[in-house]
Amino acid sequence: MIDQLSAIEQEALAALQAVNAKDALENWRVTYLGKKSPLMTALGDLGKLSREERPAIGKRGNEVKSALEAAYADRVEAIRKAELQHSLTAGALDVTLPGRPRSRGRLHPHTLILREMYAIWAEMGFQVYRARDVETDEYNFELLNIPPHHPARDMWDTFYTVTPGVILRTHTSPGQIHAMHEYCPQPIRVILPGMCYRYEQISASKGIQFLQMEGLAVGQHIRLGDLLGTMSEFSRRIFGPDRQTRFRASYFPFTEPSVEVDVSCANCGGTGCGVCKYTGWLEIAGAGMVHPTVLKNGGYDPAVHSGFAFGMGPERIAMLKWGISDIRYFWGNDLRFLEQF
Amino acid sequence: MKVPISWLKDYVDLTLSIEELAKRLTLAGMEVEHIEYYGVPGSDLVWDREKIVIAQIVEVRAHPNADRLVLADVDCGGAASAGTALHQVVTGAPNLFHLKGQGRLDQGPKVVFAKEGSVLYDGHEAGRVKMTLKPAKLRGVKSDSMVCSEKELGLSDEHEGILLLDEDAPIGMPAADYLGDAVLDIAILPNVARAASILGVAREVAALTGQPLKQPLYELHGTGPQVNEGVKVEILDPDLCPRFTATIVRDVKIAPSPYWLRRRLRLAGQRPISNLVDVSNYVMFDVGQPIHTFDYDKLLKRAQARGDDRPTIIVRRAKTGERMTTLDNVERELNSENLMICDALGPIGVGGVMGGLETEIDDHTTNVLIEAANFNFINIRKTTQQLKLPSEAASRFGRGLHPAMAPRGNIRAAILIQQLAGGTIDTGLLDNYANPAETVTVTLPVAEVKRVLGFDLEVEKIAQILESLEFTAEITNQKHLHRAADAVPVSEIVVTVPDHRTDISGPHDLIEEIARIYGLDRIPLTALNDEMPPQRNNPSLAFEERARDLLVRVGLSEVVTYAMTTPQAEAKLLPGERPDDRPFVMIANPISAERSHLRHTLLAQLLEVAAANSRHHAQVALFSIDKVYLVTEDGPLPDEPRRLSLVLTGAREPESWTRAGGHESDRTALDFYDLKGAIEALLDGLHLDGAHYEPIEHPTYYPGRTARLVIDDRHIGVFGEVHPQVREGYDFPEQPVVAGEFDFEALMAVVPGVSRISDVPRFPALTEDLALIVEDKVPAEKVQATIMAAGADTALKRAQVFDVFKGEQIGVGKKSLAYRLTYQADHTLTDADVAKIREQIVKRLREELNAVLRG
């Protein structure tokens, strides 16, 4: 009987050596450790043995069982390791294939540049104030110190509506008057973004509709130097610390003194190229100290209050910043353009 | 305005390089947009100073072998003792042929002579191609030099003959010194009418560089009869014509202008015509006063026809309906807003805008009447616009000129006509100054300069800047008004404005001048340190930006379209319907037929954009948030509410190798439920509960595939699959297009302020599935609502439909809906708890919707 058990053990261990896969292993387990296996049958039949034989054979039987179970456990582990090893080597992906695409929407560059500008101005205390697109001649021109037939009206080619005195705003400046009327006599720091309209032939740099962002600061101690300092700061933050800013005297009916703000050309670094028309400078804003007449029209006393205002083209700033060659792209809505943002 | 440097030097000495001068002018408000160089460094073609010189042709001889060439002997100075220093040039210049065979010329023409080795433009090539002069034989005669045309020198495209200079051109002088030039192209702002002349720019240059201005002389030395015996002037409307001056020059001879004047006009951008015409233009460019010339004999004839001994010029408003033919041979009808120049017989010109055809000077004119007048600038602008007659003169008058300029311009013109065309000037200047301008004085408190500019400037420095611009500045320190706090005496400067400045009326105007001339680049930059205003949020903008981000997050891209469109373009959304009959904001002067009205909807243009992109994109998902313009009864201005519009079309998933059978044709198309999913994602992101969707009919959309979004009983908008007839109006491929438009203001109104966040449940949820069969016409939203109502106040938290099935197995006209029910409580739920709730739900479904549980 003892010999028989040893034979079972030898046979089982030998068979286990040949097992390499999980299902074969399960077969082996059923064959050699299952309820109907010779070993289990033998152990089940212990009761039929004589009292003398029983301890020795029982002991041997349990030894064989433990040995087979241990061998089985080792084998399980070995096969698991082998399979893992196999999968680790055989399951390699081509990691250079593109990933599964996710649909991703894009914000229009108008929104992107406006948000960037909002953030910079907000940190300087300027908040967004929006006003209407369809305006009266009074707000768009007269209250801004541009009487009817004033030569300065040549600066804006206006779209008129069939309602007399109602036009499409040519600039965001009427919002200055609205803001002053709303906030007077408090101090003001606002930016006024919005769509403006001009009767112009559409070209790479001009359109019939475009974004503008006006700014207005009104207080009791606001000076020209503050305007220049603030505009320099904005330009440095939106275009980068290496950009130079310069101011040219200019003319706007609603500011005096008036200036134009130029930044050094990023393309050539200021030495002159096609982008800056060989001047080294690119115009980014018109600005000036709020004209006393405009302050008065807004309800402020120009003897006590002063202020500055500026107007810039977010599309132009986006073009300079991102190297966009044609303003018409903003209106073309071609996804091949929009998807680059 | 084009400003030749050589002309500018008539009035001011230049102490800066041209580039430095351009920079100073630019910073001071006269932006130099471009500098054009001729022959001098900076030019594409620099004339060699040794090789290209002024010379005189002393003899023109026949070419021995060619009729179309001549030999010219040229004296270019130096050791020019008769004959030895002459160069022989072979030339085909037709404007020398008439001198052929005349032997030695006493006053041979002055020319530009280029020696061997000179670099010039090739006159025979199109455009500007450089060439170097090399020795050659022309039909057997040696040639190593050239007499130049304007084209060869790069002065113009003229190559018909060689350039013939004025008699006084100095022989031997480098051409670069005599003809070389640089022309500044200056953008003249509307308020600097004063600088729309060479003299005006010179005045600025003088102030900026500290040089004195060389004032022109305005002295008339007439020797003819008294001018007022020759003409009378009556101004009937002095509000529109404050001043009118006249001079008469008799026995003039019309001829081409001398070279120097033709050259200056060309550099200034004006085509030379004849001496009389050229003088008018020249004086306008030179000192800024427009001039008009009449043929005096024609005026006299008209006067004599009425029995008058001399013409009377009458300046008056036109009578309504009055007609006249202007110089451009167009008969024009005028009205009482237009100012006419008339004589006793009728109109002879539109004041300041254009002269009349009948009294125009012509080739036979011998006696000239010169008009230099002053007009009301607003009236000029109105007339120019009304008659659509823009001109250099009208643009100058339209910016506002001072009446003082009229006699000056007139005297300049008379002298110049006499100089160029001979004749005698009548004695005296007829000067009818009916409405004299007042001298403007401005009191400038010195403290105001600091208040505006932000830094101290000495009072003497301020005065000096103003004086450099020809203001007179009187400093008054004697006012013993003391400010209590600092006891600094109040200084003021009393400033008298010179008569060329019509733009100065108050202290601010002067402060601008001070800043400009002092130099903006010298003003210290400061940061705002004034009181910070109350800071305010902008909820309307914040909401808009939040909606944009939510839509981008679900894969839609933002587009921006024009506010201007046409009712026809929007009518495409309503096929076979009565078109939108709400009034539009209509543009009075549209730039094109496609941009004539302000939009009522974003959707029409969004569909256009989507169709255009479908040509190169398999998937197009777009949105726009923008204004529409709705005419109201409340006033002249429209309402400008915002709309949100969305369009989806094309493949649901982007093309990818990971898709099974990744062919485009296998991909399923975006449909109604994709759009609804995007809308739900938006509402979810906005924390909006309680949205419901009503099936409706709408002409833009497919019947049965259209819904209205309703929140809190407010109609937010309509969306659905675009009606095939609408889709056909756009250039879409054969695929469904889903779209919608929402009232963004209404949406904003229903969005809750701050949403509260609930705790994460501590006990596990139980889920179970419930499949039921209902009549097909029962909307899912109703089933859902019934389930949630039945489970109200129980552990039921959510019911989510996960399967919809229609088929024979469940019977015709029926559908099966399968819901996953989620139960959650603040204790661990048992199956028994849930069974009870489920029983309620099933009962309610059966009772209310006749729903049957699906086995």
Describe the structure.
The complex is a heterodimer of chains A (341) and B (855). The relative contact order of chain A is 0.10. Chain A has helices at 2-18, 22-33, 38-44, 53-90, 109-123, 137-140, 174-183, 224-239, 292-298, 314-322, 329-332, 335-338, and strands at 127-128, 134-136, 166-168, 188-197, 209-219, 245-252, 255-264, 281-290, 306-312. Chain A is 42% helix and 19% strand. By secondary structure, chain A is an alpha+beta fold. The mean pLDDT of chain A is 91. In chain A, the strands form 2 sheets. A 7-stranded mixed β-sheet of chain A has the order 1-4-5-9-8-7-6. In chain A, helix 5 (109-123) packs across helix 10 (314-322). Chain A is built from 12 helices and 9 strands. Chain B is α+β, with helices and mostly antiparallel strands and 855 residues long.
Which key phrases capture this entry?
heterodimer, A: 341 residues, alpha+beta, 12 helices, B: alpha+beta, 26% helix
Fold topology:
The complex is a heterodimer of chains A (341) and B (855).
Chain A: H1 2-18, H2 22-33, H3 38-44, H4 53-90, H5 109-123, E1 127-128, E2 134-136, H6 137-140, E3 166-168, H7 174-183, E4 188-197, E5 209-219, H8 224-239, E6 245-252, E7 255-264, E8 281-290, H9 292-298, E9 306-312, H10 314-322, H11 329-332, H12 335-338
Parallel strand pairs in A: 1-4
Antiparallel strand pairs in A: 2-3, 4-5, 5-9, 6-7, 7-8, 8-9
Chain B: E1 2-4, H1 5-8, H2 18-27, E2 31-38, E3 52-62, E4 70-75, E5 86-91, E6 110-114, E7 119-121, E8 130-132, E9 136-138, E10 141-143, E11 146-147, H3 150-153, E12 164-165, H4 175-178, E13 181-187, H5 198-209, H6 227-230, E14 232-235, E15 243-250, H7 259-267, H8 275-287, E16 292-295, H9 296-305, E17 312-317, E18 323-325, E19 331-333, E20 339-343, E21 346-350, E22 354-355, E23 368-374, H10 377-387, H11 392-399, H12 405-421, E24 424-425, E25 430-433, E26 441-445, H13 446-453, H14 459-468, E27 472-476, E28 492-496, H15 507-518, H16 539-553, E29 557-558, E30 564-565, H17 567-571, E31 597-598, H18 603-614, E32 619-627, E33 642-650, H19 672-685, E34 691-695, E35 701-711, E36 714-722, H20 724-728, E37 737-743, H21 744-750, E38 766-775, H22 780-790, E39 796-805, E40 814-823, H23 831-849, E41 852-853
Parallel strand pairs in B: 14-17, 29-32
Antiparallel strand pairs in B: 1-13, 2-13, 3-4, 3-6, 4-5, 6-11, 6-12, 7-8, 9-10, 15-23, 15-24, 15-25, 16-23, 17-20, 18-19, 20-21, 21-22, 26-28, 27-28, 30-31, 32-33, 33-37, 34-35, 35-36, 36-37, 38-40, 38-41, 39-40
Helix pairs in contact in B: 7-8, 8-12, 10-11, 22-23
